C-alpha cells in the first residue's frame, strides 16, 4: 500500500485533513501566541471529547472487562528508580550538531535521510520507478543538499541498503563512522558535523528544596510505577495470579527534533497494561480459547528479513501453536488490541501487527509485536505488545531487597534429592587461614555432577582435591575430617517465583491521529466538504440539535430535547446560529457528529422531529419519544442506522443547502 | 466545631481511617520500596476508580450541563509564559535552613508553629482550656523545643495573635525580622537559622536538546493554557459570549516541606473552569434566577476580621443583592460548586464558603471565595472561586500583541462627541525642536474639561498656554496656526473589550481525601468495622457478587450476572474467596461498595437472588431481572434503597458471620 486513501477511495490529502482538524480545534500547537514550542500540542473541545471517549472505551474494554487493577502513579520520579530500570544510562538518542548553523539532528535519522535520498537519486538515474515509502518520505522535510541525480556502484547500493536495514541498531561510534565514511555533511550548510553524542530523552528536574542538582525525572512510561507497586497489588488481589495492572496517564520524552504533528510529541497520553503471569507452564491464558479463531494480519520477523512487507493473515490459534507468536497470553492480547482498535473505527485494511526484529527488542524481551496503523506518514506504531520477561521486577528486587515475587503453596510438595556438602568450619579456619573463605566458596560452587564424583572419591580414599583458583598451587586437598558429601532429600512446600510481564502499551495520541486519518473523507458536491465518520461511541458529540431558524417557538422544544437526551446519557450541542441548516450540518460533519435532529414548524404543530445520519445524510421523521429511543440505541450500538431507516418513515422535506 | 466526628457521631480517628485507606489501597506513598519521596502518592485500584468517577461527575455537572469548552493543554510550559503570568517572579514560598541539621523549613509555617506553641503554653500556665485548632495542630509534627509551660505578658500575647492573623502576608524580610525579634531557633537543634530565602515552587526543566539551562516549567495550574487559547476558543464558540473553558489535568508545586498526606502534595489533579464574561453590566448570569434561593454557609471577610469563624447561612440571591458576593456569575458558581460537592457525598454541615481577606487575594482579584471542607486537619480549602478580572488576558495580550479581546458589533452604534485637538506638526518641529515630542504629549494628555476651556480661550485670544513640565519654564504658549481644538462627533460600530474571568478551581485530591473522611464511620459489633458510605454514583465498585461458596453450581450464575450488569453499565466485582460471606461483605464495606448480591442454593433452584445494602446491611430477595433493574435504578439515582425495600420482600436467611 503505497499511498493512503479514504474509505471512498480518494487519495487522502493530509494538508486538507490537517486544516479541518485545526480549524475545528481538534488540536492546535501549544503556546502559539508565544511562537509555539515544537512537539507540544493542546487538544481543543472536540479533540478533548474524542480523547475522553477513547479513554473511556479503553477502560471498559480492558480494565473493567478483564478485571484489571488500575493505578494512578506520579509522573515525577526520583533518579534511583530510573537508574535501576536502565533509563538513566540507556534511554537516549544520538544527536549531531551542525557547528555552522547550530542546528541539531538526530544522527540516525540524518544518515537514513541522506542514504535514502542518494538511493532515490540512483534509481532516478537508472530510470527506475521509485516506490515511495511515505513514512520515510515524511521525515525528509529539509532539503538534502547532496541529492543530485547520480548513479551509484551496485556494491554501494547494496551497502546502503544493508545499512538502512540496520539503522535502528547503531551506537554513537558507529554512527560517527557512517557519517565519515559516507561523507555526510550538514544538510543546510554542507559543513562538517560535530561527532554524535548521546542525549538522554528524559526531562530532568529537582524534587524538593534541598537538592542542589537534578534528582528526578518525568517518567518516560507509566510502567515503572506499576512494577514498584507489584507487592501491594498482589496483596490487593488476595495473592491470586495471574492478574494485570493498568494505568492511563501522561508520559514525557524530550525528542531531539520532533516533527510529524501528533505522532512524535514531547508529552503524550499513554495507556499501559502490565499483565503478570507465571513463567512456568507456557504462559497460558484462560480465555485464549474464546479468541483463538480470530484472524490477524501478522508481519513476522522472517518476512521482514527477506525484505518483504507482506503480512500473513492467520488465526491467533495457528500463530501461537506454530510458535510464531511466543505464547497464549501475548496472543490473547494481540486479539484484544485488534478488537479495541476496530471498536474505535480503525480501518482493518490499515492495521497490521509487526514483529520486532531480534536486534530491535530490549535484550530481556522474549517477543514483541507492534500494532501499526497505516497513515499518510506510512505505517505507524500505535500499540506495542511486548513480553518483558521478569526483567523489571528482578532489577527492582535486587536493588531494594523488596520481595517482588509470588510465593505460593505447592499443590504437591516438591521433593528434591541433592548432594549436599558440610564443612567443618572450626578446622577449616586454623588450617587455611586467610584462604579459608576462598576454599569455602570453591566448595559451594561445586556442581551436582562433581559432588557425586567427589563423594565416591572421599569414600574410597578419605580425601579429595578440588580446584581453588588463587589458593596455593590452584588445587587444594581436603580430608574427611573437614568435609562431608552426602545425598539428601528435602521437601519444598512453597514455590517462589518472579512473574513475567506481558505489556500492551498504547500511545493514545498516535491512535487518535491515525483514527482521524482513517475516518476522514470528502463528500463531493457543490463544494467538497470534509466528513469525519467516527463511530457514535467515540464521536466527540453524538447529536446536533438544529432549529430551522431563530424563531421563538422552537426554543422550548430545544430545551426539552437537550434535557431528555442528557438524561439518557447522550451528549448533544445546539446550533441555533443563523447559518443555513445545510451549512450547520456541514460544520458538524467536519466535527464528526453522527446524528442531527431538526426542529421545524411541523415540530411545533405535532411534536415530530427529523433525525439525520451523518454519512448517508438520509433523514427519517418520527415522534420525539421514538427519535430519542432510536438515538439512544444508535449511540449504545444496539441498533444500526439501517435498522432505523427500515422502521421509520424517510423524510426529504427541508432544503438543506 | 472543634473536633471531627463521623455521621454516627463517633469521634473520627484519623489513624484508623488512614490504616483502612492504605490497607485497601485507596492510596499509597509513591516509591515506597525505594524509601518513598515526600509529597508524592499513588492511587491504587479503589482510589483510582473513585477519582475516575468524581472526574466523570465533574465533567457531566460542569462541562456537559453548562456546555463548556474542554481543553487539554500541555503541562510542560516554556518560561516566557510563566514570566508574563507572574509565576516566575512571585510563585514562591520563603524557606529557612537550619545550618546545624541541614533541615529546611517553610519560614511562615515555622513562625506560626512556634508562636502557637508559646500561646498554648501560656494558656496552660494560666490554667485556661485550649480550644484546639486541629488544622494547625496537624502541622506541628515536629517537637517544638521552646514550649515549656510559661506565662507570657498580656501585651505579647496580643502581639503574637496579631502576627498570626497576618502570617500569610509577610515577605522574606518581615519573616527574618519576626524570627529575630521572637528569638525563633531551629526546632530540633536550637541553632540560629539562616535568613529566609525565596524558593520558587515550580519544577524547572529543559525542553529540547539545545537548551543549556532550564527553559521551562511544569505548570502550577491549568489556567494559563486556557488563557493562551482564548482567541481560538472564542472563534470555536462562534464569537458568542459569555462562555467557559474547562480543563482537567495534573499540576505541580514543589512544596518546601509537604505533610498532611493527600492534602499537600507535589503533583495533583486539578479541574479548572475559566468563565469569560463581559465586565460591563454587572457580570450577570443567565441562569442565576434558577439558583437564587439556594442557601449557602458563608463566612465573610468582616466576620473573620472580627476574629469569629461563625458563618452566616443565606440565599445566594440575598448575598449578591447585598453586595457580599460581588456578582451573579460568581454567585452562580458558588451554588454549582455546592451542588457538585453534595452530589459526591460531602457532609453539608462540614462545608462552608470562606471569603478571602483583602490582603489574601491577588492584587487583581475582585472577589474570592473558597469552598472549605472540615476534616481532622481543620477546614481545608478544596475549591477556590475567584474573580481574576481581566488580568491574565491583559498581560498576555500586552506581551504578545495577540488580540485576546472580544470585538462585537454594537446593537446601537455609539455616538461619541468629544473635543479633539489637531496639531500642525510641520510647524511644531522647527519651532520646538527637541521639545516637540514633549509638547505633543502634553497636548494629547489634556482632559476634555481643559480642552473645552482652551477651545474658548483659543477662539477669543488666538493663543493658549499649556503646562509642559520639563520644557522651558514649564508652560508653553501655542498660537492658532499650530493648534486647533474642535468638538466633533464620531460613531463607533464595534465594541472591543477584554473579558473578565471567573475561575472555579478544584483540587481533586483534596476533595477525595475530605470526602473519604466525611463518609467514613465505624460499624459497632463483635469487631468494630470501618465503612465508607460513598453514594453509588462515586463508589469505586457498585456491586459485589458473592457466591455462598466455591460450589461449581454457582459459577454460571456469576458469569451471567457479571455480563448483564456490565451491559447496563454497572461495575461489579466477584469475591469467590473462601472467607465467610460476612467477612467478604466487611471487606467491601471498607471499599465502599454500596450493594452486594448473594448467589446461594435457592438461586440454583429458582434463579432468585438477594440484594444487600451496605449502610443498613438489610437484604431483599427477588428474581434476577428485578434485582438487576433495581440495582441499575439505585446506581443511576432514580430510586433510593427505601423505595426498593418497600416493594421487595425482605430477606434474613443467611448467617453472615
TrEMBL record, chains A, B:
GO cellular component, one term: mitochondrion
Top EC class for this record: ligase
InterPro entries: aa-tRNA-synt_IIb (IPR002314), aa-tRNA-synth_II (IPR006195), aa-tRNA-synth_II/BPL/LPL (IPR045864), Anticodon-bd (IPR004154), Anticodon-bd_dom_sf (IPR036621), Gly-tRNA_synthase/POLG2 (IPR027031), GlyRS-like_core (IPR033731), tRNA-synt_gly (IPR002315)
Reaction catalysed by this enzyme: 2 ATP + H(+) = P(1),P(4)-bis(5'-adenosyl) tetraphosphate + diphosphate
Residue ranges annotated for the Aminoacyl-transfer RNA synthetases class-II family profile domain, each copy included: 183-547
Gene Ontology molecular function terms on file: ATP binding; glycine-tRNA ligase activity; transferase activity
Enzyme Commission number(s) of this protein: 6.1.1.14
GO BP annotations listed: mitochondrial glycyl-tRNA aminoacylation
SUPFAM superfamilies, sorted: Class II aaRS ABD-related, Class II aaRS and biotin synthetases
Compartment(s) of residence: Cytoplasm
CDD domains hit by this protein: GlyRS-like_core, GlyRS_anticodon
Gene3D superfamilies hit by this protein: 3.30.40.230, 3.30.720.200, Anticodon-binding domain (3.40.50.800), Bira Bifunctional Protein, Domain 2 (3.30.930.10)
Keywords in alphabetical order: Aminoacyl-tRNA synthetase, ATP-binding, Cytoplasm, Ligase, Nucleotide-binding, Protein biosynthesis, Transferase
This protein's record includes keyword Coiled coil: no
Family: Belongs to the class-II aminoacyl-tRNA synthetase family.
Record PANTHER family: GLYCINE--TRNA LIGASE, GLYCYL-TRNA SYNTHETASE/DNA POLYMERASE SUBUNIT GAMMA-2
Quaternary data: Homodimer.
Name recorded for this polypeptide: glycine--tRNA ligase
Classification of source organism: Eukaryota, Fungi, Dikarya, Ascomycota, Pezizomycotina
Amino acid at each position: 500500500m503505497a499511498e493512503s486513501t479514504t474509505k471512498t477511495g480518494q487519495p487522502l490529502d493530509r494538508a486538507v485533513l490537517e486544516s479541518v482538524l485545526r480549524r475545528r480545534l481538534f488540536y492546535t500547537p501549544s503556546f502559539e501566541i508565544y511562537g509555539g514550542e515544537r512537539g507540544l500540542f493542546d487538544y481543543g473541545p472536540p479533540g478533548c471529547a474524542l480523547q475522553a471517549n477513547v479513554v473511556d472505551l479503553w477502560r471498559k474494554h480492558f480494565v473493567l472487562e478483564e478485571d484489571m487493577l488500575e493505578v494512578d502513579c506520579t509522573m515525577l520520579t526520583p533518579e534511583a528508580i530510573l537508574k535501576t530500570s536502565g533509563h538513566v544510562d540507556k534511554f537516549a538518542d544520538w544527536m549531531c550538531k551542525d557547528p555552522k548553523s547550530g542546528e541539531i539532528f538526530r544522527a540516525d535519522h540524518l544518515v537514513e535521510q541522506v542514504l535514502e535520498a542518494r538511493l532515490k537519486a540512483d534509481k532516478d538515474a537508472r530510470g527506475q520507478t521509485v516506490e515511495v515509502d511515505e513514512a520515510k518520505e515524511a521525515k525528509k522535510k529539509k532539503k538534502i543538499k547532496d541529492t543530485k541525480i547520480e548513479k551509484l556502484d551496485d556494491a554501494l547500493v547494496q551497502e546502503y541498503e544493508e545499512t538502512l536495514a540496520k539503522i535502528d541498531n547503531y551506537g554513537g561510534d558507529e554512527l560517527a563512522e557512517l557519517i565519515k565514511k559516507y561523507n555526510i555533511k550538514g544538510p543546510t550548510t554542507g559543513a562538517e558535523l560535530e561527532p554524535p553524542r548521546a542525549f538522554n530523552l528524559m526531562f530532568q528536574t529537582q524534587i524538593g528544596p534541598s537538592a542542589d542538582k537534578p534528582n528526578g525525572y518525568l517518567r518516560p512510561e507509566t510502567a515503572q510505577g506499576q512494577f514498584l507497586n507489584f507487592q501491594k497489588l498482589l496483596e490487593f488481589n488476595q495473592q491470586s495470579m495471574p492478574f494485570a495492572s493498568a494505568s492511563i496517564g501522561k508520559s514525557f520524552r524530550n525528542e531531539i527534533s520532533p516533527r510529524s504533528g501528533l505522532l512524535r510529541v514531547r508529552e503524550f497520553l499513554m495507556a499501559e497494561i502490565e499483565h503478570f503471569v507465571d513463567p512456568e507452564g507456557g504462559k497460558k491464558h484462560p480465555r485464549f480459547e474464546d479468541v483463538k479463531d480470530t484472524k490477524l494480519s501478522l508481519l513476522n520477523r522472517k518476512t521482514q528479513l527477506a525484505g518483504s512487507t507482506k503480512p500473513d493473515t492467520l488465526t491467533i490459534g495457528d500463530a501461537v501453536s506454530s510458535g510464531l507468536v511466543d505464547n497464549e497470553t501475548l496472543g490473547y492480547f494481540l486479539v484484544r488490541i485488534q478488537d479495541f482498535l476496530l471498536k474505535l473505527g480503525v480501518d482493518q485494511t490499515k492495521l497490521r501487527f509487526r514483529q520486532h526484529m531480534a536486534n530491535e527488542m530490549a535484550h530481556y524481551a522474549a517477543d514483541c509485536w507492534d500494532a501499526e496503523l497505516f497513515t499518510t506518514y506510512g505505517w505507524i506504531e500505535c500499540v506495542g505488545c511486548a513480553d518483558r520477561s521478569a526483567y523489571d521486577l528482578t532489577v527492582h528486587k535486587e536493588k531494594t531487597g523488596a520481595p517482588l515475587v509470588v510465593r505460593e503453596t505447592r499443590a504437591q510438595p516438591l521433593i528434591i534429592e541433592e548432594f549436599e556438602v558440610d564443612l567443618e568450619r572450626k578446622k577449616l579456619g586454623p588450617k587455611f587461614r586467610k584462604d579459608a573463605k576462598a576454599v569455602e566458596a570453591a566448595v559451594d560452587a561445586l556442581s551436582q555432577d562433581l559432588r557425586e564424583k567427589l563423594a565416591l572419591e572421599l569414600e574410597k580414599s578419605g580425601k579429595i582435591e578440588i580446584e581453588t583458583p588463587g589458593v596455593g598451587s590452584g588445587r587444594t586437598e581436603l580430608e574427611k575430617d573437614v568435609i562431608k558429601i552426602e545425598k539428601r532429600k528435602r521437601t519444598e512446600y512453597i514455590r517462589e517465583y518472579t512473574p513475567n510481564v506481558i505489556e500492551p502499551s498504547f500511545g493514545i495520541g498516535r491512535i487518535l491521529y491515525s483514527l482521524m486519518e482513517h475516518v476522514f473523507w470528502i463528500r463531493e458536491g457543490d463544494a467538497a466538504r470534509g466528513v469525519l465518520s467516527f463511530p457514535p461511541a467515540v464521536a466527540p458529540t453524538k447529536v446536533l440539535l438544529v432549529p430551522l431558524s431563530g424563531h421563538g417557538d422552537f426554543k422550548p422544544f430545544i430545551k426539552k430535547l437537550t434535557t431528555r437526551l442528557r438524561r439518557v446519557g447522550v451528549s448533544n450541542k445546539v446550533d441555533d446560529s443563523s447559518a443555513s441548516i445545510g451549512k450547520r450540518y456541514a460544520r458538524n460533519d467536519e466535527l464528526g457528529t453522527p446524528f442531527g435532529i431538526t426542529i421545524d414548524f411541523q415540530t411545533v404543530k405535532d411534536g415530530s422531529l427529523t433525525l439525520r445520519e451523518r454519512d448517508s445524510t438520509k433523514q427519517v421523521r418520527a415522534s420525539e419519544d421514538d427519535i430519542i429511543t432510536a438515538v439512544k440505541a444508535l449511540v449504545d450500538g444496539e441498533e444500526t442506522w439501517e435498522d432505523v431507516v427500515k422502521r421509520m418513515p424517510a423524510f426529504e422535506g427541508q432544503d438543506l443547502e
